[in-house]
Specification:
This protein is an alpha/beta fold. The protein contains 6 helices and 8 strands; from the N terminus they run βββαβααβαββαβα. The chain is globular.
Length: about 230
């Protein structure tokens, strides 16, 4: 955590509040981004991604999606940690999680440091939540990395009006790369990009995982920044 980063409270739509990790740009103000976690919590990597985008001019908020189950949990990627993460995921109410994304967007828009639109960038579970949040029309721009479950919810595409960008690993055993072709058809003629990375595995953006792919991660990040710049 640096001087421009801190945890803040986010009012929940169904009562109570939860926390999110806020990272602000050096200029003090910028367009908003919601960073949506994998199943491992708002851990060091997710906080690092938030700070990465903040350093590039955005006001970024990463909400604690698992707060109703285990607030502020941070879980590793291997062995029993992965088993535990999957157990927590099975307890997650996705409807409430989606409502929390909407609450996070509202909190971001209320901050004086936020100017302009609010985007969401999500990874795995967060990639699905980004897609669902766009369908619920609570975000202005969506960028989804290897969103697990999108292949089972293609019908939601008809509800999306926000510009969308998708990233998939061609060697991902968890999210079939065929979903990329399905999304290209679903978003044909609309403001959307679908990118695949032939040698990349699931989680290729996470520098703390064994599946990290520096080349695919850098290219996807460059594409995401350009997409945000065009639509900000």
């Amino acid at each position: 955590m640096n001087a421009l980063s801190r945890w803040i409270e986010i009012p929940a739509s169904d009562g109570g509040s939860f926390q999110g990790y806020l990272a602000l740009p050096p200029a003090g103000q910028g367009p908003g981004i919601i960073i949506l976690q994998e199943i491992f919590g708002v851990n060091a990597h997710i906080r690092g991604v938030a700070e990465q985008y903040a350093a590039q001019g955005y006001a970024v908020l990463a909400p604690d999606i698992f707060w109703r189950i285990e607030p502020r949990m941070e879980i590793g990627y291997h062995g029993q940690d992965r088993v535990r993460a999957n157990q927590l995921y099975e307890q997650l109410d996705k409807d409430l999680a989606l409502a929390d994304v909407g609450a996070t967007a509202a909190r971001l828009r209320s901050l004086p440091e936020v100017s302009g639109k609010v985007a969401a960038i999500g990874f795995c579970l967060g990639g699905w939540l980004t897609y669902a949040a766009a369908a619920a029309q609570v975000i202005d721009i969506g960028i989804s990395y290897y969103g697990g479950g999108i292949q089972d919810a293609l019908g939601l595409a008809d509800r999306i009006v926000a510009p969308m960008q998708f990233h998939f690993g061609g060697s991902d055993p968890h999210v079939p790369v065929s979903v990329a072709a399905d999304l290209r058809k679903a978003f044909a003629g609309r403001d959307a990009e679908v990118h695949t990375y032939s040698q990349a595995d699931h989680g290729f953006n996470c520098w703390e995982r064994e599946t990290y792919d520096a080349g695919a991660s850098a290219l996807a990040h460059e594409r995401a920044l350009q997409f945000l710049h065009v639509h900000r």
